[in-house]
Automatic annotation (TrEMBL):
Molecular function per GO: DNA binding
Record keywords, A-Z: DNA-binding, Transcription, Transcription regulation
Record bears the keyword Disulfide bond: no
Name of the molecule in the record: TetR/AcrR family transcriptional regulator
Gene3D superfamilies reported for this sequence: Homeodomain-like, Tetracycline Repressor, domain 2
Native species: Futiania mangrovi
Keyword Ligase assigned: no
DNA-binding region: 29-48
Domain HTH tetR-type: 6-66
InterPro entries xrefs: DNA-bd_HTH_TetR-type_CS, Homeodomain-like_sf, HTH_TetR, Tet_transcr_reg_TetR-rel_C_sf, TetR_C
Amino acid sequence: MGRPRAFDEDVALDAAVSRFWSHGYAGTTVRDLEAAMGLGSASFYNAFGDKQALFARCLQRYLDGTMRARMADCEDRAPLDAISDFLFGIVERSLEDRRGCLLVNTAIELAPHEAAFAGTVAQWLRELEAFFARCIRRGQADGSIGPQRDADDLARLLVSTVLGLRVMARGSPDRALLEGVARQALSLLPPGAQDTCNPRSRSNGDTP
């Protein structure tokens, strides 16, 4: 039976996530990680393997704690509220944290030449698309979103909006600009019978 670890793995992983998020994969060395995590070389390799294996764990931890958690939180809301709150939540987080989205950063930096990370990026994009598609289909079923357009096509449009917001915020962290993009994306969802009779403020940018 192995000896218990003399460090808190969750704390160490959070420190690694922060380092990768701030400096990127290429800009982070194993020594940087050891210093950030407070680990010696032997402890680092025994616990986490190599830099690539650690980054894979960090990326999943980031997705579970941010994007997947946010999707789960929005899923129980009314369809249009779920979509609107998610998009405007992206705007808020993009303005609050200039590091951007670790997943989007990974897609740009690593996915083109690292197959393992390309698979993680593709899987997350499918999850996000499925989340939007579920919301749209629920809206089409309850009359808050019109049936004129294909739910999967609209979901892919919203995924593209999320990615665009994240990238735009890195270079132009302007609230009016980003909220304008989110409003226009929402305006492309066709109004349903319920929405026509009782118009919802799709474009006010309010979030709880």
